[in-house]
Design goal:
Helix content is about 40%, strand content about 5%. It is an alpha/beta fold. It has a single domain (about 10-220, about 255-285), classed as P-loop containing nucleotide triphosphate hydrolases (Rossmann fold), CATH 3.40.50.300. A five-stranded parallel β-sheet has the order 2-3-1-4-5, with helices on both faces. Helix 10 (about 220-230) packs across helix 12.
Length: about 300
């Protein structure tokens, strides 16, 4: 596949990390009159799916499919796909991106690595995809087991290094979730300056954050049923009226039970700290930031 010279290709990629504020950033950027962001948010275009390792990806759909998600009416056209940073479960992602959009700006969001793991686990619980305790879900972090998908996404420098090899210096911006939470106006102005659009733009919706509570709430039985009714195979046998009602209920409550914070044993936390500390220190050296509140 060779890149096509088209204004319809994106020039901004938000590459992750998952559960670090990418949904909020995508939403804020979309409000800027000089920026358009893809719908849906996660296109996963540069991933070749692997049925065993990571069965998600849309590379085979081709450039016409990818191009159809962008408009030439704005100076900046972007997409947000946290699955672009799941090495080694996905490989060659940065290389494919560089072959198609070599001049793109890259934004990568991070947070405390262990907090990100807990949030990712809670997200999976909320989806109904994880029923084990957090300690059990991390029980196979031996370098090859499924639990490593939680850990590898928190090895930020390991993920970022793939992109620094493919994109020039100055085209990559690392943000911390706490930047967006604690100093949103200046952080967004920094992003706008990085993208070359009006840094003074503001909007009343900048006050809101996305996906900050439902990730912590496992689904009730009713919530799980509503999700099945809303989409997937069950939807085809469900009257449209019920599907619309299911969507309305989910949007209002998430179909979730009250918040439940999982326990992380001292031994498991110590193990994770040992696995993540060197990578976190390499990120500090790369960014020149100390991330003083992080646990590693």
């Amino acid at each position: 596949m060779t890149p096509a010279a088209s204004p319809m290709l994106p020039n901004l990629l938000i590459i992750g990390a998952q559960k670090c504020g990418t949904t909020s950033l995508h939403r804020y950027l979309k409000l800027h009159p000089e920026v358009s962001m893809s719908v849906p948010k996660e296109l996963d275009f540069f991933i070749v799916p692997d049925e065993q390792l990571f069965p998600v990806g849309n590379w085979s759909r081709g450039l016409d499919w990818y191009r159809s998600h962008f408009t030439e009416r704005t100076a900046v056209r972007g997409e947000t796909s946290p699955n672009y940073t799941v090495y080694p479960f996905t490989e060659g992602v940065a290389e494919r991106a560089a072959s198609v959009v070599p001049d793109a700006k890259i934004v990568y969001m991070v947070r405390d690595p262990i907090d990100r793991i807990v949030s990712h686990y809670l997200h999976r619980v909320g989806q109904g995809a994880e029923r084990r305790s957090l300690n059990d879900a991390l029980g196979d972090v031996d370098g090859a087991g499924p639990g490593m998908t939680l850990v590898y996404r928190s090895m930020y420098f390991m993920q970022l290094e793939r992109w620094t090899r493919c994109f020039p210096e100055g085209s990559l911006l690392v943000l911390a979730q706490e930047d967006l939470q604690d100093d949103r106006a200046e952080t967004l102005a920094r992003v706008f300056r990085f993208l070359g659009v009006d840094p003074g733009f503001t909007h009343e919706d900048f006050r809101a954050l996305s996906n900050v509570s439902t990730e912590k709430r496992p689904p009730t039985r009713v919530g799980a049923w509503l999700r099945r009714v809303r989409g997937g195979a069950a939807a085809r046998a469900t009257p449209a009226r019920l599907r619309r009602r299911a969507a309305s209920v989910l949007e209002g409550s998430g179909g979730a039970s009250p918040e439940r914070r999982p326990d992380l044993s001292d031994a498991r936390r110590e193990q994770l700290e040992g696995m993540l500390r060197e990578d976190a220190d390499r990120l500090r050296a790369f960014t020149g930031r100390s991330f003083p509140t992080w646990s590693v």
